[in-house]
Amino acid sequence: MGDTLEFNEIYQEVKGSWNDGRLRFSKQNVVYKSSKTGKVDSISAGDLNLAQWRRVCLGHGIKLGTSTGNVYKYDGFRDTDFEKISEFFKTNYKLELTEKDMCVKGWNWGTAKFSGPLLSFDVNDNSAFEIPLSNVSQCATGKNEVTLEFHQNDDTEVSLMEVRFYVPPNQTDERSDPVEAFAQNVLSKADVIQATGDAVCIFKELQCLTPRGRYDIRIYPTFLHLHGKTFDYKIPYPPVLRLFLLPHKDQRQMFFVISLDPPIKQGQTRYHFLILLFSKEEDINLTLNMSEEDVERRFEGKLSKNMSGSLYEMVSRVMKALVNRKITVPGNFQGHSGTQCITCSYKASSGLLYPLERGFIYVHKPPVHLRFEEISCVNFARGTTTTRSFDFEIETKQGNQYTFSSIEREEYGKLFDFVNAKKLNIKNRGFKEKKGMKGKIDEYSDSDEDKHDAYLERMKAEGKIREEGNDSDESDGESDESFNPGEEEDDIAEEYDSNASASSSSEEGEGSEDEGAKKKKAKKVKVVKERKERKPRKEKKQKDTGGPKRPMSAYMLWLNSNRERIRSENPGISITGISKRAGEMWRELGKDDKEVWEAKAGEAKKQYDLAKKEYKESGGGATSSSKKDNKKSAVKKETKRKSSGGDKDRDRGGGNDSFKSKEFIETSESSSDSDRKSKSKKKKKESEEEEEEEEEAMSTPASSEPESD
User: Fold this and answer.
1) What is the dotted CATH code of the domain comprising 342-422?
2) Which CATH class is domain 111-169+177-188?
């Protein structure tokens, strides 16, 4: 047997919800890491004094007890894991893993036992259920009853609200009240915040972004009290997961972020993060409401009775000592502007994205913290509104997607190198290699290789097109720079005139203005790319409605016969869900079963070929095509006649097209006029040819035409 045992998909019950994670037994300790929050529980091997193997709802579970009175329960083991875990405990922990049965009789009369942080209700020395006293939010007593109320968890579909215990009166000792004794045992371990004693220190009028407002923060030994004008919040220290100290982009302010699980609540609103904003210039002299001996004994040199410095440093230092968590700061990342954050937008609000050593955090509305280990892939997407920005998309392993938009284009290289250095999977890299070769692509290649970067290639191509456009308008740019109102008339004319021979310098006023406008139009035409000649459209095949229907494939035959079965096995399934489930079942179908349906499809194909052959021999399909050709030719003749009539009217009327002003006649004719003339000549020729054809048709003798009834 090795030095460690590792198990995946092990569940821990947290206030009524099951959180999965990974459990590892080693010689030194037992470590459990939650997949949801990333929180790590570590139990030293020397502290273990209880190990029980129990049959629970999720297979089998282990209950571990420590010498300090803490109890840890982990579920999700298989029946076959008992032997190797038992042997590992005997060898490394010198502890026997005992099997303990649970009571499943359903009796509601038993014995209540308080063992550490658990209240166990036993029936015939077997535990029927256990209540973690840390989940209790309130304890009320009656004449012979004790009522326990519980903290609610938003992640659970069904929550336990309260449990009532009937406590019979004590017949032997009338002086002691068993109800009060029961309630005191519950309250000693319950998570009921009681503000007893004085606060360690108080910070007045701190600006809080989430929840919004200014609050007085009173720091007690076991909890944090936020006192505002409208609301008060009491936050115990165990729910605090992480502390962040983040510099603002303006380098004059600091964010202090407290991550909470479970969150604090105000009505239906949940606050998973507490965000404080400080000015770097604000200083404070802080005196703790404790004696120097108590400070030294309690905080072991982390704090002193009298401290002074920046306000954000004092708050973060006190919180670190009381919560006993490390403070996370930005790593080595530096953006284009030299700061450690990136300006972007998430949903409808603008904020700051901080790339950390082990994740990303966005502040502030709403705050988002994403750890690298829960990120499935990232994607660099083109901005929807402008090419001067791009979007950064993060997809988690749970299927959630976070899009941070409106990031400046200059930040792209820095962010791409950071993501590449952290070895995160980039979704839109390497498309060219995928098309060109079938071999395996190195997803962790060097960030300097631009060929792996699809977005960077697009940005370069757009830059080249923009440069070509600027080169073609170079004469416009030069004239704008050289234009001065005080210069001579010849210089002003050169601003608009790229072809000196085309205009006479003697004529000024309205004529020169018209020429300038025409020249500008001619220059704009140069920038426009030449259009390629379109290929003639292929005529659509006319569907023959009278012919035999095409046969179904083997999969469609199988789907038609199994559709009702899929719908009955999955009540409420959508149409797309049926197709998805059918595709999975077809892939899992055996080769022999598939051959049966393929044989049916082959038989249907033979029948279709035979029916189609008979249909063609009987003359089906030919008449419809001939009718279609006759219809097309008739439509063409009508359109020709209409166009010739319209040209004649236009030639007769003349209209304003033939009129030219004096200024227009003196200048050289534009290409558009010449094109219009050539088109009108062509139309005249076509109309004359059609008139000749009609005259010939009228002059032909009647005997040459077929007789009609």
Assistant:
1) 2.30.29.30
2) mainly beta
- Non-local CB neighbours of 397 within 8 Å, separated by 6+ positions: 374, 375, 376
Q: What CA–CA distance (Å, rounded) separates 619 from 614?
A: 9
pLDDT at 521: 46
pLDDT at 446: 34
Report which of residues 530 and 161 the model is more confident about: 161
- 606 Rama class: left (phi>0) / alpha (psi -120 to 50) / beta: alpha
Whether 193 contacts 55, CB under 8 Å: no
Which pLDDT score is estimated for 368? Answer: 93
Range 436-443 average pLDDT: 36
Query: Position of tokens 């569940």?
Result: 11
Show me where the domains of the chain are located.
4-99, 111-169+177-188, 201-328, 342-422
DSSP one-letter string for 519-582: HHHHHHHHHSPPPPPPPPPPPPPPP-TTSPPPPPPHHHHHHHHHHHHHHHHSTT--HHHHHHHH
Which of these CATH numbers, 2.30.30.230, 2.60.40.10, 3.50.50.60, 2.30.29.30, describes 4-99?
2.30.29.30
Sheet holding 162-166, edge to edge: 136-141, 145-150, 162-166
For 22-75, how does the pLDDT look when each residue is reduced to its tens digit (9 = 90+)?
Answer: 999 998 889 998 887 778 888 888 888 889 898 887 788 998 888 888 888 899
201-328: CATH topology is PH-domain like (2.30.29)
Yes or no: say if 225 and 199 are a contact pair by the CB < 8 Å rule.
yes
Most confident of the following: 92-96, 192-196, 489-493, 679-683: 92-96
CB 264 within 8 A of CB 224: no
Q: In this structure, what is the dihedral angle of CA atoms 512, 516, 522, 526, given to the nearest 10 degrees?
A: 140
Q: How far apart are CA 641 and CA 694, in angstroms?
A: 11
Pairing type for strands 17-25 and 98-100 reads unpaired
Give which of 670, 673, 549 is closest to 612, Cα–Cα: 549
Beta strands in 342-468 (DSSP E): 342-346, 349-355, 359-363, 368-371, 375-382, 389-396, 401-408
Q: 242 and 328 in contact (C-beta within 8 Å)? A: yes
pLDDT averaged over every residue in the chain = 76
Using one digit for the tens of pLDDT, what is the confidence trace for 373-420?
A: 899 999 998 766 667 889 999 999 888 899 999 899 889 989 999 999
The single-letter code of the amino acid at 97 is L
Percent of the chain with pLDDT over 70: 68
Q: Using one digit for the tens of pLDDT, what is the confidence trace for 499-518?
A: 444 444 444 444 444 545 44
Query: Which amino acid is it at 449?
Result: E
Domains 4-99 and 111-169+177-188 equal at CATH topology level: yes
Residue 311: band (very low, low, confident or very high) from pLDDT cuts 50, 70, 90: very high
Give start and end residues of each alpha helix (H) in 308-375.
311-323
Residues 6+ apart with CB under 8 A from 635: none
pTM for the full predicted model: 0.51
CA distances (Å), origin 628, targets 541, 545, 642:
11, 14, 22
Residue among 47, 15, 14, 20 nearest 32 (CA): 20
